[in-house]
Write a structure and sequence with these properties.
The radius of gyration is 17 Å and the shape is globular. By secondary structure, the protein is α/β, with parallel strands linked by helices. It has nine helices and ten strands. It has one domain: 3-Layer(aba) Sandwich (Rossmann fold). The chain is about 35% helix and about 20% strand.
């Protein structure tokens, strides 16, 4: 069993950029009356107590969601609303993972398939989503399970792929999963989260996507500082296949401001580009 637990990292800068992109995609899918399927390959526990011993050990949320104020980012009002919905007061105590964010957008006609391999986290996820019949929690490897849902009956799907990359082969496996999923369902939206610990691995991942034959791929990345060796995760981003209309323009305006607020030194940067055209 892998050792990674997201409860140590919830609400950090990587969550911020991942969930901003996720909210934008979910808003896009709900603008149409047609149903859609949401598939989360590494769903986690769904909700995290920022005052728990796990969260306080590293306190990564302090340089993530803890630095952002809703009043400074009115364009992110829906993102902040999803967080507020998980807190009973104005105090930021709980931070939602992607499943609970997605659950706030699901309508009666939509379905969610949440994969989590850790049994304890899968049990917590079931408890955190109980009562919502549109949500199914599966304790299984999501990279293997996602293909079973494609193509979806709804003919519309948003797939979030965000492993910890604790196993180095995950980088290649993630790409192969998207490649296979795209062959089955070319019109789906696929969001791939990645951490930058070793830039060479991310460059290889980007190259794989660029030469895959898949069209319409965008990349959004937030770097707290310049790339370094041996300093842990310094940057994080999302590669999005078939991104929602308007996402690129919004992120191109937003990312420079996030760099100003979250960057830790003068080497902070962002990337917002079209890896492959439509």
């Amino acid at each position: 069993m892998l050792s990674y637990r997201h409860s140590f990292h919830a609400g950090n800068f990587a969550d911020v950029i991942k969930h901003i992109v996720l909210v934008e995609a979910l808003e896009h899918f709900t603008r149409k009356d047609k149903p859609f399927d949401y598939i989360d390959t590494h769903a986690g526990a769904g909700l995290f107590n920022l005052e728990s011993s796990h969260a306080l050990k590293l306190a990564e949320h302090a340089n993530g969601i803890g630095k952002l104020e809703a009043g400074q980012f009115p364009e992110l009002s829906r993102y902040f609303e999803t967080i507020a919905a998980c807190n009973s007061s104005n105090r930021l105590r709980y931070y939602p993972g992607s499943p609970l964010i997605a659950s706030q957008f699901l309508r009666r006609k939509d379905n969610a398939w949440l994969y989590e391999l850790h049994k304890d986290d899968a049990d917590r996820l079931r408890k955190n989503t109980e009562g919502n019949r549109r949500i199914k929690v599966i304790c299984q490897d999501g990279l293997k399970g996602v293909l079973a849902h494609l193509p979806p009956i709804s003919r519309r799907a948003l797939v979030l792929i965000d492993p910890s990359y604790e196993i180095k082969s995950d980088y290649e496996q993630v790409f192969k999963t998207v490649q296979s999923a795209h062959k089955r369902f070319a019109t789906g939206t696929y969001g791939v989260w990645y951490p930058v610990v070793d830039r060479k691995r991310i460059a290889q991942l980007e190259t794989s996507f660029i030469h895959s034959g898949i069209k319409n791929i965008q990349r959004f990345e937030l770097g707290l500082c310049a790339d370094t060796d041996g300093s842990g995760m310094t940057s994080s981003g999302m590669i999005v296949v078939n991104p929602p209309w308007g996402l690129f323009d919004k992120m191109s305006r937003l990312l420079p401001r996030l760099v100003e607020v979250l960057g830790t030194d003068k080497g902070a940067f962002f990337k917002c580009d079209q890896l492959v055209s439509e």
